[in-house]
Amino acid sequence: MASTTNSIVLGCQSGEDMTGKASSPSSSDVERVVCGATVDKKAALERRILRRIDLRMLPLLGLLYSLALIDRTNLGVARIAGMGEDLELSVGTRYSLVSCVYFIPYILLELPSNVLLRTFGTRNLLSFCVIVWGAVQLAMAFVPNWKYLVLCRVLLGAFEAGFFPALVFIITTWYQRHEVQKRLAAFYLISILTGGFSAIMAYGFSQLAGRAGLNGWSWIFVIEGALTIVFGCVAWVFLPEFPDNNSFLTREETKFILERIEEDRGDALPDAVTLRKVLQHLSDWRIWVYGIMFMCASIPAYAIGFFVTVILSGMGWNLELALLLSAPPYIFAALSVFVFAWLSDHYRLRALFLAAQTLLTFIGFTITGFAQQPGWRYFGLFLGNAGSAGCIPGILAYSSNNVVSHSKRAVTTAIIISFGGLGGIVATTIFRQQDFPRYIPGIIITISCQVLLLVLLGILSLNFWYHNKAKRTGARSGHIDLLYTL
Q1: Rg of the chain on CA atoms, in Å
Q2: Domain range summary for the chain, segments of one domain joined by +
Q3: Which superfamily, per CATH, for 59-250+281-461?
Q4: E strands of 10-124, at which residues?
Q5: Which residues belong to any copy of the Major facilitator superfamily (MFS) profile domain (predicted)?
């Protein structure tokens, strides 16, 4: 299948197959509906194929990204489960260094990985990355001191680098523009829900302390690393390729999907990636604005991921209760993310709902930082987590809706998520040990970044509005007659 779908030609006539040759009648309406179906049959076929794509991609990709988030953020629980004392992570800025060093290779390798994704193949490259970073995660259980932990974190960042941008790149090539955010949200909320209970699970693993001569924090890395390796093997079997060379749809179904994409934005088939094209795409100032916006949204998301149990402990709750209380904000965030994504796709608006979720983050972190009562501060975590988590798929959908060509999509996605890595560095350095338990400087910087996000969103939206107005009056024209999504 994978070797034949590349030759698919978009468009067909009644009585001909996709190569233009005469075809014999088929007994299946579904197989022939592409070339002359009624509207009802075509709509039914569309729903069936999209459902099949959703089920094949979103649960697996969401689960794999959940493992990536867990593996990069489980340091917080491991620290309070004994790793902090054993490796002396509370000395100076060691914990912040161990946390943020992960993001250096993560940022540097995202663009090369995304550009080379088609060359190596989705299954080959991504499953290799999952298995190897799982092995690194497992090795972290046996580090003798904090310096070796730093080395493991660097390797973890290197092998996770291309994973998230590749997933977003793949998803956005399968759907029309106003179907994307629900899918990104569905994929992302799986990771949110899993991440919400990861602290509780990690604490449960730490109760194996003493078994096989390992400390409790070591068991966290052993079990979670082994799970990642197992799912990496599963990924090699089931990971989807791009639409034009997938192996799980029939030829007719693949053709139907490619035609939908071509009608929507004109980039169903890939274009060649060259150095000249990459440099040309990088000269588009909008890519960098998207990136800064994504960084602003990532800072509160990473701050909560890395420090939620520490923040809750600082509110006066004991360790067990702090771990239990870390889950409900993620459940609320998952619900909020999907509701906003559905509204955004339904009304075909991105900026308005992004602004609403950014304000939610602003309000939430303001309450958590400056309210006096622990209950109110905890309520602020609900709002802040929901808003920041929703902005992640929102910005990715906003950018993907306004990009044409596979090469630019690959570059844009990689650059945006690289800025998310910068957000991770900022989050791990502004929430400093000396500011425990309220972390006021970190809270203020996080709030300020939400203001910056709103300003950039306004500038970008005005620019899109101006170009749309000019296109409608015929003053300007793009590669295709494609209006920007506002």
Answers
A1: 23
A2: 59-250+281-461
A3: MFS general substrate transporter like domains (1.20.1250.20)
A4: none
A5: 57-466
